[in-house]
Design goal:
With about 130 residues, the protein is mostly helical. Helices cover about 75% and strands about 0% of the residues. It is built from five helices and no strands. The longest helix has 25 residues, at about 40-65. The radius of gyration is 15 Å and the shape is globular. The protein starts with 8 loop residues before the first helix and ends with a helix.
Length: about 130
């Protein structure tokens, strides 16, 4: 695998998703408990938002540098936050809720990684 500095945007997304999906699965129970606590502890919600904001800023900066054509910053920011929320919900459906309509996706880990990565890539880096 190329070094982080030489990865294409899609390679970087795949590497990130590979790590995050593995992390989410291994910590699904913990992540669900934190989700429940955020509803009663506003400071925990604020911390989650701070961490997510820093991560989103990095993703936004990368997309701005590597997109083939500019996209309105407000639209790009919405895409990053929407993708983050959607992927978290998909992983929750698979690893926490164990939704029978989607759990099969976890049986082919590479397909799950590739499909989620393709969705991210298209949302952030393709023209439109």
């Amino acid at each position: 695998m190329p070094s982080a500095a030489r990865r294409s945007p899609l390679e970087a997304i795949i590497a990130t998703n590979r790590y995050y999906i593995d992390y989410f699965e291994k910590n699904a129970v913990f992540m669900e408990r934190v989700r429940e606590l955020r509803e009663t502890l506003p400071e925990l919600m604020a911390e989650k938002q701070r961490v997510n904001r820093r991560w989103a800023e990095r993703v936004l900066a990368h997309a701005v540098r590597h997109r083939p054509s500019p996209l309105d910053p407000a639209r790009l920011k919405l895409r990053v936050f929407a993708m983050e929320c959607m992927v978290d919900d998909v992983l929750r459906e698979i690893f926490v809720i164990r939704n029978p309509d989607i759990i099969e996706a976890a049986t082919d880990r590479e397909m799950l990684i590739q499909e989620l990565s393709t969705i991210w890539f298209k949302a952030l880096y393709e023209v439109g």
